[in-house]
Write a structure and sequence with these properties.
234 residues, alpha/beta, Rossmann fold, 26% helix, binds glutamine, Pyridoxal 5'-phosphate synthase subunit PdxT, EC 3.5.1.2
Length: 234
């Protein structure tokens, strides 16, 4: 039995939980915060917001959510991670310090066949905004807000690159090949979506959340409409 609209959870340990809930609700789905394993069991899909991936790793353990969440992802639950959420969904995470091989303190959920580097845009540009072309999203360029953002440095064969920004500095190993020269900032693999930026912070543009809700519908046979793109219902 599939109700017409899915129930979408937002991992509510840290970060822009309220903003993601509001954006999801504007698309027409039921959205609720998830803090406990019982709440995770009730949702059809999950958003992992930004924050600090080391802190979120600790909180996932404290709230006994890490293993149940990894299990749901393995079973194919649709998920969308923004910024630190992208870091957590990755298979493998590199630190911003080039001398450190892996990122200590981050335990990843392994739902995306990508290598992600944390804080990849350097200290001088802790935050910036960019207008992006985004595959699967129509209309004007997407305004993207990056805050101590990660980047994707390698993608597996089943990963689709959805958006890149022009590279500054030296490309990482394999990056030029994967991106045609840009730095990858949004990817999809099956029912899993990730962006290095924060669409929930851009008022009046819910197109990334609408894309995610369409992915949930595709994946699960939910039949209800995704409200069309409009800036009027914000
Ligand atoms: N805005 C964010 O989510 C920042 C992510 C943070 N720099 C991390 O690596 O976890």
């Amino acid at each position: 039995m599939n109700p017409a609209q899915p129930v979408v959870g937002v991992l509510a340990l840290q970060g822009g939980v309220a903003e993601h809930l509001a954006a999801l609700r504007r698309t027409g789905v039921t959205a609720c915060p998830v803090r406990r394993p019982e709440e995770l069991a009730e949702v059809d899909a999950l958003v992992l917001p930004g924050g600090e991936s080391t802190t979120m790793t600790r909180l996932l353990d404290t709230f006994e959510l890490f293993e149940p969440l990894r299990a749901r992802l393995r079973e194919g639950m649709p998920a969308y991670g923004s910024c630190a959420g992208m870091v957590l969904l990755a298979d493998s995470v590199l630190d911003d310090r080039p001398d450190v091989r892996d990122s200590p303190g981050v335990r990843t959920l392994g739902a995306l066949d990508v290598v992600v580097r944390r804080n990849a845009f350097g200290r001088q540009v802790d935050s910036f905004e960019a207008d992006l072309a985004f595959e699967g999203i129509e209309g004007p360029a997407l305004r993207a807000v990056f805050i101590r953002a990660p980047r994707v440095e390698k993608t597996g064969a089943d990963v689709t690159v959805l958006a890149s920004v022009p590279s500054s500095g030296e490309p990482a190993d394999g990056e030029a090949e994967a991106t045609g020269g840009g730095t990858i900032v949004a990817v999809r693999q099956g029912p899993v979506l990730a962006t290095a930026f924060h669409p929930e912070l851009v008022n009046g543009d819910d197109r990334v959340h609408r894309l995610f809700v369409r992915m949930i519908h595709e994946n699960s046979g939910h039949t209800g409409p995704v409200r069309p793109d409009t800036t009027e219902d914000t």
